[in-house]
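hey team, just a heads up i'm posting the complex here instead of the shared drive bc the drive is being weird again. everything in one block, sequence lines first with there labels, then the predicted structure for the whole assembly after. its two chains so it's a bit long, scroll down
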Amino acid sequence: MAAAPPAIDATPAALALVAALSERHGPLMFHQSGGCCDGSAPMCYPAGEFKLGARDVLLGHVGGAPFYIGGDQYERWRHTRLTLDVVRGRGSGFSLEAPEGVRFLIRSDVCAAP
Amino acid sequence: MRYARPNTPDAKVRYESRYDNFIGGEFVAPVKGQYFENPSPVTGQTFCEVARSSGEDIELALDAAHGAKDRWGKTPAAERARLLNKIADVMEAHLEELAVSETWDNGKPVRETLAADLPLAIDHFRYFAGCIRAEEGSLAELDEHTVSYHFKEPLGVVGQIIPWNFPLLMAAWKLAPALAAGNCVVLKPAEQTPATILLWAKLVGSILPPGVLNIVNGFGVEAGKPLAQSPRVAKVAFTGETTTGRLIMQYASENIIPVTLELGGKSPNLFFADILDHDDDFRSKALEGFAMFALNQGEVCTCPSRALIDKKIYGSFLELATERTKQIVQGDPLDTRTMIGAQASNDQLEKILAYIDIGKKEGARVRTGGERVRLGDGLEEGYYVAPTIFEGHNKMRIFQEEIFGPVVSVGSFDGFDDAIAQANDTLYGLGAGVWTRDVHTAFRAGRNIAAGRVWTNCYHLYPAHAAFGGYKQSGIGRETHRMMLNHYQQTKNLLVSYDPKPMGFF
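-- predicted structure starts here --
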């Protein structure tokens, strides 16, 4: 195991949304997506909805909810620090917040040279 | 020319204020009576409401589909083909109307919907109408008295979840083979772009027997999920991203049904040094091929968003390519001169801007663009991004992730082997481009790039009869070719003995 996973944190708006969603849906989990359309966006599910694989990496917790990323994608993201934010949007995929008219979004900072 | 905005005088398109689901051959209100607002990315303003469905609506659609499946599956191929051709004819007669609607719902320029989305969608129905007429099973004579017959049977009822980047065309890619093969469909359009397909259903819905085609609208988590999880579908087709793709495979594993998935890419576009050997049409074509990253605002799963340029020509080629990119006309998507329109949604806009930000933080250099564009004339709140060229290297995140915006990340390669190594240094393998005057380089590069489609001295062509699908994490299955029929068919083997004598075992 090389460097520790980059931290994930969240903006106050994202934390408020996580709290509201967990009140409605119970415990939550996040998985960072890749690929097209709504790829590169974080997906929010009821805890346990998404079956983790052996190579998924736990980046940290946001508002008590674990935040995972696929192992291969982690290798390409590990030089960046992630912040969960929320914006007005229409969402897609099966992420829980979409019907609220908002969408989780990842912002990033560089913490090591790629 | 500029098309009038929908619902204004002289407009080609009149939307109703509210759209229901299309189930069992008629428009049906959602069980819970809820609707969501549908804004146009052109202006950011809502122009209609669409059914916000739930699992109950999916069940109604599945009831209708199961009620229709036996008769549709036994309908002669010639009749199914006739109806698909009829759908194509009606679409052709309403081409402008549907094209303008697609522009209004998605934000893409009307010159593109008129020239590509609609003609390709129409041809897709005709292509699969032709394929199903030519479809044959097989037989093998195993010995003098024993014959093995293989019949192609429809799967029954299938679920299809459609993306928002080419709403009607992607629906056509999935519907045409499924219907041709004799399946009934429950289709869930993207919640960002539901309008044109509902307009389309009003035009063509009565051509098919009730229940063969069902369209249920709503959000992924509320309507898409119950469809993907249902034990009443025999297959799920999905275009989208990797996490949802994995989730759909997990749901499918619970029901032991097949899936086809198209999950995007990070397509390399390789420019070899001999491109600049002559100042001719081909050089201009290659520069156009570079600028294709801005086609459809970059919202294409095969967006050539990684340009890899031979270091021998890096500076001079990139200079020409930047000039060509700056000539892209951005503006009102309803103006036929406009080449790049609006991003499909606000969250999409925000995501692209977040990637431009990370690109800058990673040390990539912006050659042009790199910002949101505020257009006038009522388009101030639309979602516009300037075509953006980044210079950097292949380990940067902007070289590894699909931004799904008009953003290209440019790097250089040193020799053929380095070109292929960088091209393949990605999690994905959907599309790629190769530009060279040398047939040997073209062939070797095409065969060595791990991607399902390698455009060679062209890009962004999507004709029927050329298979489209991904290697690696880009998905499973091949669309836009008759082989897609296989993904919607079951094989029935009849093993028949014509020997009246006992076998002699017992």
